[in-house]
Write a structure and sequence with these properties.
Elements: H1 14-17, H2 21-37, E1 42-43, H3 51-58, H4 62-65, E2 72-75, E3 78-81, H5 86-96
Antiparallel strand pairs: 1-3, 2-3
Length: 97
């Protein structure tokens, strides 16, 4: 996708409002990467990525993504992003076909 559809209610979610500014910025950078990859908000095997890879691909540091917060986190080695616009991704994929 070439755009990010962020529902304004997401910006009022407890997870977003309660996060510190670095966590919010990290989430936004991760969201940008995931949208460009159309990966459903899941970066596979991301826990093994080096700091350099995080910086080059997502414009964040490994330390920032390893922070425990409600906006993103690791599950079974994959980074899972909350509030990913999966419905919009599905529409884009369908329209492209």
């Amino acid at each position: 996708m070439n755009w990010i559809n962020i529902h304004t209610d997401t910006l009022r979610e407890v997870a977003f409002v309660g996060a510190d500014p670095v966590e919010r910025a990290t989430w936004l950078c991760l969201l940008g990467w995931c949208v460009s990859q159309e990966n459903g908000g899941i970066i596979e095997d991301a826990e093994s990525w080096s700091d350099r890879k995080w910086q080059q691909l997502c414009a964040v540091t490994k330390e920032e993504v390893e922070t425990t917060c409600l906006l993103y986190g690791f599950e079974d080695g994959n980074l899972v992003l909350q509030f990913y616009p999966i419905e919009q991704e599905s529409k884009v994929v369908k329209n492209r076909a």
